[in-house]
Amino acid sequence: MQGTAVNIRQIDKSSLGKGLYHRREKRRLLKLEELYDRYGESLYRYLVFRLGSAEDAEDVLQEAFCRFARYTVRWKLVRDPRSFVLRVARNEANRFLRRKLGRREGEKMILSGMAGGFVETFVAPEEPLLALLLRRSEELPAEQKEIVFLKVFDGLTFKEIGSVCGVSANTAASRYRYGIEKLRDAVGGKP
Amino acid sequence: MDDLNDIERDLRRLVPRPAPPGLGERVLDSALGARKNTALTSRMRIVAVVCMVLIVALLGLDPLIGRHESARLAALLDGRPSGGAQGAEAFDLAESLGGQGYEGNGMAKLQARIANAVRKERQRHFGEALRGLRGWSVHEIYEDLN
Hints:
By secondary structure, chain A is mainly alpha-helical. Helices cover 70% and strands 4% of the residues of chain A. By secondary structure, chain B is mostly helical. Chain B has helices spanning 2-12, 23-36, 42-76, 83-98, 104-133.
Protein backbone atom coordinates (compact mmCIF):
# COMPACT_ATOMS: atom_id res chain seq x y z
CA MET A 1 0.00 0.00 0.00
CA GLN A 2 2.83 2.29 0.94
CA GLY A 3 4.62 1.38 -2.24
CA THR A 4 1.55 2.24 -4.31
CA ALA A 5 1.34 5.64 -2.66
CA VAL A 6 4.98 6.29 -3.38
CA ASN A 7 4.53 5.21 -6.98
CA ILE A 8 1.57 7.53 -7.43
CA ARG A 9 3.54 10.34 -5.91
CA GLN A 10 6.47 9.58 -8.16
CA ILE A 11 4.44 9.95 -11.35
CA ASP A 12 5.58 13.00 -13.19
CA LYS A 13 2.45 15.10 -13.58
CA SER A 14 4.22 17.99 -15.23
CA SER A 15 3.16 16.77 -18.65
CA LEU A 16 -0.46 16.20 -17.65
CA GLY A 17 -2.99 18.80 -18.66
CA LYS A 18 -0.69 20.21 -21.28
CA GLY A 19 -2.74 20.41 -24.40
CA LEU A 20 -3.61 23.24 -26.66
CA TYR A 21 -4.87 25.19 -23.68
CA HIS A 22 -3.26 26.84 -20.72
CA ARG A 23 -4.66 28.71 -17.77
CA ARG A 24 -3.44 32.25 -17.67
CA GLU A 25 -4.86 35.17 -15.74
CA LYS A 26 -7.75 32.96 -14.56
CA ARG A 27 -8.76 32.43 -18.17
CA ARG A 28 -8.48 29.36 -20.32
CA LEU A 29 -6.75 30.44 -23.50
CA LEU A 30 -5.85 28.56 -26.60
CA LYS A 31 -2.12 28.35 -27.09
CA LEU A 32 -1.82 29.76 -30.58
CA GLU A 33 1.94 29.25 -30.70
CA GLU A 34 1.54 25.56 -30.04
CA LEU A 35 -1.27 25.35 -32.56
CA TYR A 36 0.98 26.93 -35.14
CA ASP A 37 3.87 24.63 -34.25
CA ARG A 38 1.64 21.61 -34.70
CA TYR A 39 -0.37 22.53 -37.77
CA GLY A 40 0.97 25.78 -39.21
CA GLU A 41 3.26 24.30 -41.83
CA SER A 42 0.85 21.67 -43.03
CA LEU A 43 -1.95 24.22 -43.16
CA TYR A 44 0.23 26.53 -45.22
CA ARG A 45 1.09 23.69 -47.59
CA TYR A 46 -2.56 22.70 -47.90
CA LEU A 47 -3.56 26.28 -48.62
CA VAL A 48 -0.89 26.64 -51.30
CA PHE A 49 -2.28 23.42 -52.76
CA ARG A 50 -5.82 24.85 -52.68
CA LEU A 51 -5.05 28.35 -53.86
CA GLY A 52 -1.92 27.98 -55.98
CA SER A 53 -0.27 31.11 -54.61
CA ALA A 54 2.06 31.58 -51.65
CA GLU A 55 0.77 35.12 -50.97
CA ASP A 56 -2.88 34.07 -51.01
CA ALA A 57 -2.05 31.08 -48.83
CA GLU A 58 -0.37 33.34 -46.28
CA ASP A 59 -3.34 35.72 -46.23
CA VAL A 60 -5.79 32.89 -45.76
CA LEU A 61 -3.61 31.28 -43.10
CA GLN A 62 -3.64 34.56 -41.18
CA GLU A 63 -7.42 34.75 -41.48
CA ALA A 64 -7.74 31.16 -40.33
CA PHE A 65 -5.58 31.82 -37.26
CA CYS A 66 -7.56 34.96 -36.47
CA ARG A 67 -10.61 32.75 -36.53
CA PHE A 68 -8.92 30.20 -34.25
CA ALA A 69 -8.05 33.00 -31.84
CA ARG A 70 -11.67 34.13 -31.67
CA TYR A 71 -12.96 30.59 -31.07
CA THR A 72 -12.79 30.27 -27.32
CA VAL A 73 -15.84 28.20 -26.53
CA ARG A 74 -15.79 26.19 -29.73
CA TRP A 75 -12.31 24.82 -29.06
CA LYS A 76 -13.58 23.07 -25.97
CA LEU A 77 -15.98 21.07 -28.13
CA VAL A 78 -13.47 20.04 -30.79
CA ARG A 79 -12.57 16.38 -30.63
CA ASP A 80 -10.13 16.17 -33.51
CA PRO A 81 -8.14 19.40 -33.78
CA ARG A 82 -6.26 18.38 -36.91
CA SER A 83 -9.31 17.84 -39.10
CA PHE A 84 -10.96 20.85 -37.51
CA VAL A 85 -8.13 23.23 -38.42
CA LEU A 86 -7.97 21.81 -41.95
CA ARG A 87 -11.70 22.20 -42.34
CA VAL A 88 -11.57 25.80 -41.12
CA ALA A 89 -8.67 26.52 -43.50
CA ARG A 90 -10.56 24.91 -46.37
CA ASN A 91 -13.66 27.01 -45.67
CA GLU A 92 -11.51 30.11 -45.37
CA ALA A 93 -9.84 29.34 -48.71
CA ASN A 94 -13.23 28.89 -50.38
CA ARG A 95 -14.43 32.16 -48.87
CA PHE A 96 -11.28 33.85 -50.13
CA LEU A 97 -11.82 32.55 -53.68
CA ARG A 98 -15.45 33.71 -53.69
CA ARG A 99 -14.36 37.12 -52.46
CA LYS A 100 -11.53 37.42 -54.93
CA LEU A 101 -13.22 36.09 -58.06
CA GLY A 102 -16.86 36.84 -57.32
CA ARG A 103 -19.39 34.33 -56.13
CA ARG A 104 -20.03 32.61 -59.46
CA GLU A 105 -16.46 32.36 -60.67
CA GLY A 106 -15.29 31.48 -57.18
CA GLU A 107 -17.71 28.56 -57.00
CA LYS A 108 -16.55 27.36 -60.39
CA MET A 109 -12.94 27.56 -59.29
CA ILE A 110 -13.65 25.72 -56.05
CA LEU A 111 -15.45 22.90 -57.87
CA SER A 112 -12.85 22.58 -60.61
CA GLY A 113 -9.90 22.80 -58.23
CA MET A 114 -8.04 24.73 -60.90
CA ALA A 115 -6.74 27.38 -58.50
CA GLY A 116 -4.01 25.24 -57.04
CA GLY A 117 -2.46 21.82 -57.32
CA PHE A 118 0.61 19.73 -56.76
CA VAL A 119 2.88 21.75 -59.05
CA GLU A 120 2.50 24.93 -57.00
CA THR A 121 2.98 23.05 -53.74
CA PHE A 122 6.06 20.97 -54.47
CA VAL A 123 9.52 21.71 -55.81
CA ALA A 124 9.96 20.36 -59.34
CA PRO A 125 11.80 17.06 -58.94
CA GLU A 126 14.83 16.22 -61.04
CA GLU A 127 14.08 12.53 -61.12
CA PRO A 128 12.01 11.76 -64.28
CA LEU A 129 9.69 9.31 -62.53
CA LEU A 130 8.80 11.84 -59.86
CA ALA A 131 8.39 14.60 -62.44
CA LEU A 132 6.01 12.36 -64.39
CA LEU A 133 4.14 11.48 -61.21
CA LEU A 134 3.81 15.17 -60.38
CA ARG A 135 2.46 15.95 -63.85
CA ARG A 136 0.00 13.06 -63.79
CA SER A 137 -1.22 13.86 -60.31
CA GLU A 138 -1.99 17.33 -61.56
CA GLU A 139 -4.34 15.80 -64.12
CA LEU A 140 -6.47 14.03 -61.53
CA PRO A 141 -10.02 15.31 -60.91
CA ALA A 142 -10.13 17.94 -58.20
CA GLU A 143 -11.87 15.83 -55.56
CA GLN A 144 -9.46 12.91 -56.05
CA LYS A 145 -6.47 15.24 -56.06
CA GLU A 146 -7.42 16.78 -52.75
CA ILE A 147 -8.01 13.44 -51.09
CA VAL A 148 -4.72 12.02 -52.37
CA PHE A 149 -2.98 15.13 -51.03
CA LEU A 150 -4.57 14.89 -47.59
CA LYS A 151 -3.95 11.17 -47.33
CA VAL A 152 -0.39 11.08 -48.56
CA PHE A 153 1.06 14.35 -47.27
CA ASP A 154 -0.96 14.99 -44.12
CA GLY A 155 -1.48 11.34 -43.22
CA LEU A 156 -5.16 11.77 -42.44
CA THR A 157 -7.46 8.79 -42.05
CA PHE A 158 -10.40 8.48 -44.43
CA LYS A 159 -12.75 9.47 -41.63
CA GLU A 160 -10.74 12.64 -41.02
CA ILE A 161 -10.58 13.35 -44.75
CA GLY A 162 -14.32 12.90 -44.90
CA SER A 163 -14.86 15.44 -42.15
CA VAL A 164 -12.48 17.90 -43.83
CA CYS A 165 -14.02 17.60 -47.29
CA GLY A 166 -17.59 17.07 -46.19
CA VAL A 167 -17.97 13.57 -47.62
CA SER A 168 -18.33 10.14 -46.05
CA ALA A 169 -15.30 8.04 -45.18
CA ASN A 170 -16.33 5.50 -47.83
CA THR A 171 -16.51 8.18 -50.51
CA ALA A 172 -13.11 9.46 -49.46
CA ALA A 173 -11.66 5.95 -49.61
CA SER A 174 -13.07 5.21 -53.06
CA ARG A 175 -11.90 8.54 -54.45
CA TYR A 176 -8.46 7.88 -53.08
CA ARG A 177 -8.39 4.40 -54.61
CA TYR A 178 -9.49 5.70 -58.01
CA GLY A 179 -6.89 8.46 -57.87
CA ILE A 180 -4.05 6.15 -56.96
CA GLU A 181 -5.09 3.64 -59.64
CA LYS A 182 -5.04 6.38 -62.23
CA LEU A 183 -1.58 7.44 -61.11
CA ARG A 184 -0.39 3.86 -61.17
CA ASP A 185 -1.69 3.40 -64.72
CA ALA A 186 -0.16 6.71 -65.79
CA VAL A 187 3.23 6.05 -64.29
CA GLY A 188 3.33 2.33 -65.13
CA GLY A 189 2.25 2.36 -68.78
CA LYS A 190 2.32 5.85 -70.25
CA PRO A 191 5.50 7.74 -69.79
CA MET B 1 -1.73 -3.15 -52.79
CA ASP B 2 2.03 -3.01 -53.18
CA ASP B 3 1.52 -0.80 -56.23
CA LEU B 4 -0.58 1.54 -54.15
CA ASN B 5 2.17 1.67 -51.57
CA ASP B 6 4.76 2.33 -54.25
CA ILE B 7 2.80 5.27 -55.60
CA GLU B 8 2.34 6.62 -52.09
CA ARG B 9 6.03 6.18 -51.39
CA ASP B 10 6.98 7.99 -54.58
CA LEU B 11 4.56 10.81 -53.86
CA ARG B 12 6.05 11.21 -50.39
CA ARG B 13 9.43 11.80 -51.97
CA LEU B 14 8.16 15.06 -53.42
CA VAL B 15 9.63 18.03 -51.55
CA PRO B 16 7.19 20.80 -50.56
CA ARG B 17 8.13 24.38 -51.29
CA PRO B 18 9.44 26.06 -48.14
CA ALA B 19 7.27 28.51 -46.26
CA PRO B 20 8.37 32.15 -46.51
CA PRO B 21 10.61 33.30 -43.64
CA GLY B 22 8.82 34.93 -40.72
CA LEU B 23 5.46 33.43 -41.68
CA GLY B 24 4.82 32.11 -38.19
CA GLU B 25 5.47 35.47 -36.51
CA ARG B 26 3.23 37.32 -38.93
CA VAL B 27 0.42 34.82 -38.56
CA LEU B 28 0.64 34.75 -34.75
CA ASP B 29 0.83 38.56 -34.52
CA SER B 30 -2.34 38.99 -36.52
CA ALA B 31 -4.07 36.23 -34.56
CA LEU B 32 -3.13 37.79 -31.20
CA GLY B 33 -4.32 41.16 -32.49
CA ALA B 34 -7.62 39.59 -33.50
CA ARG B 35 -7.97 38.07 -30.04
CA LYS B 36 -7.50 41.48 -28.42
CA ASN B 37 -10.12 43.03 -30.67
CA THR B 38 -12.78 40.42 -30.14
CA ALA B 39 -16.24 41.92 -29.82
CA LEU B 40 -17.01 40.04 -26.62
CA THR B 41 -14.32 39.57 -24.03
CA SER B 42 -14.69 36.52 -21.85
CA ARG B 43 -15.92 38.66 -18.95
CA MET B 44 -18.56 40.26 -21.14
CA ARG B 45 -19.52 36.83 -22.38
CA ILE B 46 -20.03 35.62 -18.80
CA VAL B 47 -22.19 38.66 -18.04
CA ALA B 48 -24.21 38.05 -21.21
CA VAL B 49 -24.76 34.41 -20.32
CA VAL B 50 -25.83 35.28 -16.75
CA CYS B 51 -28.29 37.89 -18.05
CA MET B 52 -29.68 35.42 -20.55
CA VAL B 53 -30.17 32.79 -17.84
CA LEU B 54 -31.92 35.34 -15.62
CA ILE B 55 -34.25 36.41 -18.40
CA VAL B 56 -35.12 32.83 -19.26
CA ALA B 57 -35.66 32.01 -15.58
CA LEU B 58 -37.96 35.02 -15.13
CA LEU B 59 -39.91 34.14 -18.23
CA GLY B 60 -40.26 30.57 -17.02
CA LEU B 61 -41.25 31.59 -13.49
CA ASP B 62 -43.81 34.19 -14.49
CA PRO B 63 -46.67 31.73 -15.24
CA LEU B 64 -45.86 29.81 -12.05
CA ILE B 65 -45.98 32.97 -9.97
CA GLY B 66 -49.24 34.01 -11.67
CA ARG B 67 -50.78 30.63 -10.98
CA HIS B 68 -49.74 30.77 -7.34
CA GLU B 69 -51.17 34.27 -7.04
CA SER B 70 -54.54 33.29 -8.51
CA ALA B 71 -54.67 30.25 -6.18
CA ARG B 72 -53.99 32.54 -3.21
CA LEU B 73 -56.73 34.94 -4.29
CA ALA B 74 -59.18 32.08 -4.78
CA ALA B 75 -58.35 30.84 -1.26
CA LEU B 76 -58.94 34.32 0.16
CA LEU B 77 -62.29 34.56 -1.59
CA ASP B 78 -63.26 31.10 -0.35
CA GLY B 79 -63.40 29.73 -3.85
CA ARG B 80 -65.82 32.39 -5.12
CA PRO B 81 -64.98 34.96 -7.69
CA SER B 82 -65.43 38.52 -6.46
CA GLY B 83 -68.90 40.06 -7.06
CA GLY B 84 -67.49 43.25 -8.50
CA ALA B 85 -65.58 41.38 -11.13
CA GLN B 86 -68.65 39.31 -11.89
CA GLY B 87 -70.70 42.45 -12.33
CA ALA B 88 -68.09 44.08 -14.51
CA GLU B 89 -67.96 40.99 -16.71
CA ALA B 90 -71.73 41.03 -16.98
CA PHE B 91 -71.70 44.67 -18.01
CA ASP B 92 -68.99 43.99 -20.56
CA LEU B 93 -71.08 41.13 -21.93
CA ALA B 94 -74.13 43.36 -22.12
CA GLU B 95 -72.18 46.05 -23.93
CA SER B 96 -70.75 43.60 -26.43
CA LEU B 97 -74.17 42.13 -27.04
CA GLY B 98 -75.59 45.63 -27.33
CA GLY B 99 -73.11 46.40 -30.07
CA GLN B 100 -74.44 43.48 -32.12
CA GLY B 101 -77.89 44.89 -32.94
CA TYR B 102 -79.62 45.64 -29.65
CA GLU B 103 -81.36 48.95 -29.45
CA GLY B 104 -80.15 51.53 -26.93
CA ASN B 105 -83.26 51.13 -24.81
CA GLY B 106 -82.96 47.34 -24.84
CA MET B 107 -79.33 47.59 -23.80
CA ALA B 108 -80.18 49.84 -20.84
CA LYS B 109 -82.82 47.31 -19.76
CA LEU B 110 -80.37 44.48 -20.07
CA GLN B 111 -77.78 46.38 -18.03
CA ALA B 112 -80.36 47.15 -15.32
CA ARG B 113 -81.42 43.52 -15.26
CA ILE B 114 -77.83 42.34 -14.90
CA ALA B 115 -77.13 44.90 -12.18
CA ASN B 116 -80.17 43.60 -10.36
CA ALA B 117 -78.97 40.02 -10.68
CA VAL B 118 -75.52 40.96 -9.37
CA ARG B 119 -77.06 42.80 -6.41
CA LYS B 120 -79.22 39.79 -5.59
CA GLU B 121 -76.18 37.55 -5.80
CA ARG B 122 -74.31 39.79 -3.38
CA GLN B 123 -77.27 39.78 -1.00
CA ARG B 124 -77.42 36.02 -1.20
CA HIS B 125 -73.69 35.79 -0.28
CA PHE B 126 -74.22 38.20 2.58
CA GLY B 127 -77.15 36.14 3.85
CA GLU B 128 -75.07 32.97 3.70
CA ALA B 129 -72.30 34.69 5.65
CA LEU B 130 -74.78 35.84 8.30
CA ARG B 131 -76.20 32.35 8.59
CA GLY B 132 -72.63 31.09 9.07
CA LEU B 133 -72.08 33.60 11.85
CA ARG B 134 -75.32 32.80 13.62
CA GLY B 135 -74.65 32.04 17.27
CA TRP B 136 -71.10 33.22 17.00
CA SER B 137 -71.59 36.21 19.34
CA VAL B 138 -73.64 34.32 21.98
CA HIS B 139 -70.67 33.63 24.25
CA GLU B 140 -69.03 36.97 23.72
CA ILE B 141 -68.49 39.06 26.85
CA TYR B 142 -68.71 42.74 26.25
CA GLU B 143 -66.61 44.96 28.35
CA ASP B 144 -68.27 47.90 29.90
CA LEU B 145 -66.27 50.74 28.59
CA ASN B 146 -67.92 53.17 30.89
